[in-house]
Specification:
With 116 residues, the protein is mainly α. 89% of the residues lie in helices and 0% in strands. The protein has a single domain, classed as Up-down Bundle (Four Helix Bundle (Hemerythrin (Met), subunit A)), CATH 1.20.120. It contains four helices and no strands.
């Protein structure tokens, strides 16, 4: 209840990473239903959490392009996760995980600069 908006965003990234890790585990174990459930959680976090939190109006004219690019990147991550599910493709999971980690590291840098 007392988390800052930045902390909430970081929690979303952590949740997506955890869900992708679970999907990777279930995929390796041949557990189809739990794999699908974990991937669905990751998709939900990316689409209804991270992407939904983008605010082009708040970003203003200067940030509008960034919001548009992030939105497209989140769409791509969702497509990767869907492909991973349909094709049992660990590579797609890994790519989605790497992309989300890259964005999360930028948010962590913003957090450390705002504290310092």
């Amino acid at each position: 209840m007392s988390a800052t908006p930045l902390q909430l965003i970081m929690m979303l990234f952590d949740g997506a990473k955890t869900a992708i890790g679970a999907a990777r585990h279930h995929m390796g174990a041949g557990e189809i239903a739990p794999k699908g459930s974990a991937i669905s959680r990751a998709i939900n976090i990316v689409d209804n959490g991270l992407k939904a939190s983008l605010d082009a109006q708040a970003a203003g004219e200067a940030g509008g392009e960034l919001v548009s690019n992030l939105s497209a990147l989140y769409d791509y991550v969702v497509r990767l996760l869907l492909l991973a599910n349909v094709r049992n493709d660990v590579g797609s999971l890994d790519e989605a995980d790497r992309l989300l980690e890259t964005i999360a590291s930028a948010w962590r840098e913003i957090d450390s600069q705002s504290r310092g």
